[in-house]
Amino acid sequence: QVQLVESGGGLVQAGGSLRLSCAASGRSFSSYAMAWFRQPPAKEREFVASISVSGANTFYADSVKGRFTISRDNNNGALYLQMNSLSPEDTAVYYCAQHKSGSFYNEGSYEYWGQGTQVTVSS
Fold first, then answer.
1. By the number of CB atoms within 10 A of the CB, which of 19, 69, 95, 99 ranks highest?
2. Which string of DSSP letters, residue by residue, matches 8-43?
């Protein structure tokens, strides 16, 4: 069994920054690609960013490219999302997820999910 626990969410003003963390336990963290998804209010969950096993390859949604950075620490079983230049449109519950198979952009490709952390950006 895998447990993923997000932290670091909160309330921030537009233009500000937040760093989300995801602590993983259970199945070997360093053997799986990871990702961040988010679910804005009254909307479907959407892909934000993913990172390969080694961390050498990263992928981003167009809406966050250039503002968000995904990273991982395989030694400590941790996943991060540095979010800069935040806007109210980034308000959402953010989830970390562990990849199983298939497209990195598709939430159906992920087997384990955290409980989510709320990010609220005020204008």
1. 95
2. --EEEETT--EEEEEEEESS-GGGS-EEEEEE-TTS
